Amino acid sequence: MSKKNQSAIRPVATLAPNTHRGFTLLELLVVMVIIGLLAGYVGPKYFAQIGKSETKTAKAQIEALSRALDTYRLDTGHYPSTEQGLAALNQAPSGETKWQGPYLAKGVPADPWGRPYLYRAPGEHGDYDVWTLGSDGAAGGQDADSDVGNW
């Protein structure tokens, strides 16, 4: 054999038995149970935080609406009537000569659950009431389902 042919021939490496084994079904099941337990513990806490953030968003939006309503009152001398509603912050009500709006840059937002904010003037809790019924859309409730208002 020539030297050229000798370099082309290489010995085949043999593998020892059981050196590359995979996971057993039992090991996979144990890992899946551990992941399930972690998801069962972390999941509810995570979704509770989402409900809290929507409530905080509603409070912040109601504060912004309250500031706009107060500015409206400074300009016109009164708050919009219940019939005029929050739309009076972006469009001048008919017959309102002192209106200098719009008082909200992007219009009246929907609440974090996609429903319009409720407005009443005069309010039961003050000069006016602005509120949302929470995630359930019904009066009352607790946590994310509770009503959020300016009172």
TrEMBL record:
The keyword Cell membrane applies. SUPFAM superfamilies: Pili subunits. Pfam families: N_methyl, T2SSG. Its main location: membrane. The keyword Transmembrane helix applies. Residues 46-151 form the Type II secretion system protein GspG C-terminal domain. InterPro entries: Bac_GSPG_pilin, N_methyl_site, Pilin-like, T2SS_protein-GspG_C, Type2_sec_GspG. It is a single-pass membrane protein. Keywords: Cell inner membrane, Cell membrane, Membrane, Methylation, Transmembrane, Transmembrane helix. The chain crosses the membrane at residues 23-43. It is found in: Cell inner membrane. Gene3D superfamilies: Glycoprotein, Type 4 Pilin. Belongs to the GSP G family. This is Type II secretion system core protein G. The lineage of its organism: Bacteria, Pseudomonadati, Pseudomonadota, Betaproteobacteria, Nitrosomonadales. The gene is gspG.
